[in-house]
What does this fold into?
Amino acid sequence: MNRTYGGRLVSRVLVLGTFLSLTTCGAFAQNVEFVHLNPDPNDLGVANAVAGRFAGGGVREVGGTNEPIVWGDVLDFRLAPGSSGEVRSMAILPGGDAIAVGNVAVGGFNRGFFWTEVDGLVLMPLLAGGASSTLTGVNSSGVATGQSQSDPFPAGEVVIYDTVGNVLTPLGFSGRGNEISDNGVVTGFRRSPTGSIPIRWSAAGGLEDLELGPTGVVGEGVSISPDGQTIVGRIIDGTGANFAAIWTDGGIEVIGAGIAYAAIDENWVIGQDGGGAFLYDGESKRELQGLLEELGIDLTGWELQRAAAFTDGRTTIAGEGVDDSGAQAAWVVRNFSLPVPDSDGDGVDDDDDLCIDSDTRETLHIGGFDSGVANPVDEQGCTLGDRFAEVEGSFRRQISLAIQLLFNREIRGRDFGRIIRTIIRAEIERRLRR
Ligand SMILES: [Ca+2]
Ligand SMILES: [Ca+2]
It folds into this structure.
């Protein structure tokens, strides 16, 4: 514990400097926050995972080494300085500590590891007859999955590794576990003579193949929702093209080109397609970059290429892309929510707009006549035009509205005169038409 407190002390000393560097390229709008995780121009970032205040992935430094790294909000952790590797998944343990898993090069072989702030980096033991391994997923109990070379399966056997009890369990088939849900359901792929088959595995249900759909030839489950109900990933058709797929009890749903990388449930899935990072909301795939720009985040010069991981329910998303200097960059978005539409385009979101279909003409029109008076929108989303539309056809109510606006100092005397003249013109026209 002393070490932990020591670490916290160092963190406090470094708070200011690191916080500034983290937020240099951050933009703030409403509550949404976009953070460039590796703003140092010497670092190139990949974000595969996010958990609580941490995000993890890989970073390539000037020396050309892809190191595994965990970015914190106050302190970054280089898990294996000078060694190549990558963080693949993260979770928050019951005590509140973050755990990261991934792989790191040791003596020419990739080795699966887990990392916590308290224990640092710990290599996963090897199976008999194996030299290499990787860990790709971890859940909030510290149970991880991946693959390890073994005697019967030199290409790699799917394993479960309980990092808390240090228990390594081979599952008896060739393939790789990619992610494990909080209730212990594993997804990934198994190797077959025809290629990779997406799978679901649980202690109770054993190994099941997932459907490939009408066009899939091979595929893999990339991730699984925390509750174990929704698996996402990809199928690959006969031409080699990727299609993002969602598997539930109801079978497979293919949501278009690309790869799905993470899911909260079948209606909240992120991934990558030809347009870059996407968010699928149960109805359509939408470009994350466009959604963030709608929320006021300035992403000029950026290209968000992949959305890779969620945490904190639906509100935190991590991934990578190209930053405004053209460098590969890892990013995290916090406090995200879908932008609320502004149907009438008056600048007031539908949720707050009392006049949902405003008259947004620049000037106030009454009975078809242009008064020439400005037609501003108020905080409730109603324009002067909306308010006159409510009393359309009543000369008396139009006049009293104009008087009320004058008394409330919403209009000036000159505008009052113009409005009264317009009301009279409209009234004369109305009577002539009778
Ligand atoms: Ca509006
Ligand atoms: Ca409105």
Q: What stands out?
A: The longest strand covers residues 167-180. Confidence is low (pLDDT under 50) at residues 1-29.
